[in-house]
Each structure stands twice: as structure tokens, then as C-alpha cells.
Amino acid sequence: MKLSGLLKWIGFMTVLALVYIHMQMSIINLAYQGRHKEKSIRSLKEENGYLTYSILSLKSANNLGYKLLSKDSDMDFVDSKNIVVLSKSEGPKDLDAQRSKEKTNLMVSLLSLNEQARGH
To answer: How far apart are alpha carbons 109 and 104 in whole angstroms?
Structure first.
């Protein structure tokens, strides 16, 4: 019986050691996966920074001006001959409002002149 008890104890300790080794290998494997993911995150952040810089440089006024005024471009600066001036058409309501506003302004200016004359 002592031999069978000893074999059971050795078998149990062997299984326990194998479980412990398996857990330690899993921990090490997870650590390697974490490092790999950190490297990929770092490289993605660097790529994101590079792409952001590229986008901002493409949107910059200097780049846009260079492209617009290049010799191959059909675009040009605005010429005074090409400017169109539009006037607002005034309807009857707008004219009435403008006239009443002018009358009010006239009355206010007359009253202020009258008060200035009294003050002197």
C-alpha cells in the first residue's frame, strides 16, 4: 500500500506541476500578445499622426494656392470685369418701413438739435 500511495502522490504532484507550468506558459503567452498589441497600437498612432499631417498640409492655404495658380490650372484671380453687383429689389412693404424709419430719424435729430440749442 505504501507503494500505491506513493505512486498516487507522485501522480497528483505531476498533474499539479503540469497545471502550474501550463498556467505560467499562458501568462507568458499573454504578456507577448500584450507587447505585440502595444507595438501595433504605437505604429497605428504614428501612422495616424503622419496621415493627419498629410491631410492638414493638403488643406493648407499654401498648398491650395500653389495648385490653383499652377500653370496647368484653368483658375485665375478675380478680375474687376467679372464682378457682378446685385441690388436688392425693394417691395412696397420695404419702402413703407424705410420711409417711417427716415421720419423717425428726422424727428429724433430735430429733437436733439432743439435740446442742444436749449443747453447753450
So the answer is: 9
The answer, as to whether pTM is greater than 0.70, is no
One-letter amino acid at 114 equals: N
Cβ proximity of 75 and 68 under 8 Å: yes
Compute the residue count for the chain: 120
Whole-number Å distance between alpha carbons of 64 and 58: 7
Long-range contacts of 57-61 (CB under 8 A, 24+ apart): none
pLDDT confidence of 101, banded at 50, 70, 90? Answer: low
Burial of 20: CB neighbours in 10 Å, binned 0-12, 13-18, 19+: exposed
Q: What is the pLDDT of residues 15-60, one digit of tens each?
A: 999 999 999 999 999 999 999 999 999 999 999 999 999 999 888 8
What is the C-alpha separation between 64 and 75, in angstroms, rounded? 12
